Structure formats: structure tokens, C-alpha cells
Amino acid sequence: MGKSTSFYVNDFLAGAIAGSVGVIAGHPFDTVKVQLQVQSAENKYKSLLDCVSTVRKQKLSTGFFRGLSWPMLSAGVINSVYFGVYGYTLKALGGSKEENNAPHYLKILFAGCLGGVVQLIPACPAEVIKVVLQSQIPHGNVQGAKFYKGPLEGAADILRLHGLRGMYRGLPTQCFRDIPANGIYFLVFEFLTFNGSSKLPFIPSAVQNFFAGGIAGVLSWVAIMPFDVVKSRLQADCEGKHFKGFLDCARKCYRQEGLSVFYRGLSMVALRAFPVNAVTFMLYAESMKLLGEEVTYT
Fold it and tell me: N or C, fewer C-beta in 10 Å, the chain?
């Protein structure tokens, strides 16, 4: 007898719930990260505190939470697709456990990477608008710079000038970022929760999921940090005035500022990644339990 529809829908529903809540917790950190990543060599912040201070001087809606509405609207869809494809793929492959009940890490890695591929369809346009808005916080010499009032104005202008292709600017670079990051994300989470549940059974599963999700988030972000920096710069340059593509952007960044530029904003990434992914994975796991399923698929 075939599986019920809800058996496959639960992953998408749990992912939507978790993603919508998680995005709010990390957006201020993400805004500072983008500001640090897109600053030019000629118009640099003096320090991390200088960047935070500059963003803080703006109103919340035009500072720390600038560009939040777009990811808020899209987070449920993106995470629904992301977690849903991951869970569906594991089920289609026959489960995520070996015969000895240990995680089947190759299946987990493949399912995570595939989830990363499919979520790019809604995620890339959301990232483009978010990054463009976050990069438009006044700092230093802003003469001639363009500032959008909100996501709708930004999206309309990009579509008018570049069509649908403009909404997918930086897609190849985002592929390099998201596909391995998502595979690593689930791989680390499954490894930590499996060992935690077997060696630390006295710790509630929600607590284990919280810390495992946070650690998995930090490690997956650190692994792809250079691609994130290049992606941010490409997408912030929505008119294509400065960079032709991934290689052109990477070369120019390296020539101007050296290797360290590819890890700019790392502290903000770590500060953001832990709480966001801890909350997201804990809510995902707990939502799955409420829907009558476990996070892993045996």
C-alpha cells in the first residue's frame, strides 16, 4: 500500500514553519555581514563596531531590518522546498539509516545537496533583492548611488532594466555556495544528533537539536564563506557596472584587498548562523514530531 500524501507533505510544512521564524532572529546580523562584504576598498569601515554603529544610526526598517520583508515573505517557501526535498529524497532512497541503525551519510549528503539545488529557484531572486537593499545603507561617499525605498521598487527597477535575468544575478555563485553548504548542513546535524542521542540520552532531544543545528549552521557557512562574499558583491552590483561575473569579481577583489577579503564578515556569519540555524532545526524537528514523524527517515 502506498504512502499517504501527508507522509510527504509534512517535511514541506515543518520546513515552512521553521524557516519563517528563523529569518527574523538573524536578519540584523545578516545586514551587518552584507555591509562588511560589499564595502569598497576606497570606502571601508574602520572596524566592525564602526559598521554596526553606522547601521544603528538608521531607523530599524532602514537599518538592521532593511530588506526584511522580502526574505520574510519568501522564507516559508524557500525552507519548505529545502527541507521538503531533503526529506522526500531520503524517503525515496529508502531511509537515512544503515542496517546497524547508523546514519547513511552518503544519502544524507546527496539529499541535502539536492535540496540546495531546488531551493535556488525561489531563493536567488529573494537574495538579490535582500542584498541590494542591505547594501544601500549610507556610508562615506554615496554621491550618485541609487537607493530603493523598498523591495517592490527594487524588484520593479531590476526587472525593467534587466528582465528576469536580473533577478537571478549571481546564480552560478549562489550554486557554489548553497549546494555544498546544504549538504554539509544536514551531514553535520545528523552526525551530531546521532552521537548525541546515543551518548547523551539524558539531554532532551529539543536541546540536542538546538545545539546540533547551531553548530551545523556555523560549520556550513564557514566552509563556503568565499563564495558568499563574491555572491554578495555580484548581487549588490545589480546594474553590472563593476563585475562581469564570478571570476571577474573574485580576481578584482583579490587584487584590491588580498585573500582576507574572502572571509570578510565571518564574525557576523558565525554570530548569525548559530541562533538562526539552532532555532530553525529545533523547530523543524519539533514540528515533525507534532506531525507524527521523526527527523530521520528509516
Answer: N
